[in-house]
């Protein structure tokens, strides 16, 4: 018999679900920026890959695509890499917290964890996990017939 969440954990599960929702949106957005940055830096010329990074506040304008050796402003490509990495750690923490409170199988933890590394998937996975968790919470909080008469 699979483990089910405890009724007393419902408020904590709702809190974990909110954190998961925020971190999945931020992580997914930065992952898309990261993919764009990688195309600019490493992609073939046919895709627009021209060996440049995104520069903020340099001599070429407010935002510019600049070869890495010529960057004098803030290298936004590096900022995107770092921010995505740290938000992915927070995303994994929120995934772990939700997984442990909801008492899901480990395979679901791994499925959700993949959302932060496959472009666009965090948005779809978040929507699916949110709907499933809300349904699970509604079932958990609905009194059973034996409890209603007691």
UniProtKB/TrEMBL annotation:
- Does the keyword field hold Zinc-finger? no
Tell me the keywords, alphabetical order.
Cell membrane, Membrane, Transmembrane, Transmembrane helix
Q: How does it sit in the membrane?
A: Multi-pass membrane protein
Pfam families xref list:
DUF3817
The subcellular localization recorded is: Cell membrane
> One Gene Ontology cellular component annotation?
plasma membrane
Entry's transmembrane regions = 20-40, 73-94, 106-125
Q: What InterPro entries does the record point to? A: DUF3817_TM
Q: Where does this protein chiefly localize?
A: membrane
All copies of domain DUF3817, residue ranges: 17-130
Q: What is this protein called?
A: DUF3817 domain-containing protein
Taxonomic lineage is: Bacteria, Bacillati, Actinomycetota, Actinomycetes, Micrococcales
């Amino acid at each position: 018999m699979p483990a089910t969440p405890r009724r007393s954990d419902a408020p904590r599960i709702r809190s974990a679900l909110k954190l998961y929702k925020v971190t999945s949106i931020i992580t997914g957005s930065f992952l898309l920026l990261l993919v764009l940055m990688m195309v600019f830096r490493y992609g073939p010329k046919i895709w627009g890959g021209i060996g440049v990074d995104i520069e903020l506040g340099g001599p070429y304008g407010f935002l510019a695509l600049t070869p890495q050796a010529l960057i004098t402003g803030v290298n936004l490509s590096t900022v995107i890499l770092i921010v995505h990495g740290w938000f992915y750690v927070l995303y994994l923490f929120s995934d772990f917290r939700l997984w442990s409170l909801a008492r899901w199988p480990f395979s679901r933890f791994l499925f959700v964890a993949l959302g932060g590394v496959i472009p666009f998937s965090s948005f779809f996975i978040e929507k699916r996990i949110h709907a499933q968790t809300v349904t699970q919470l509604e079932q958990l909080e609905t009194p059973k017939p034996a409890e209603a008469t007691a």
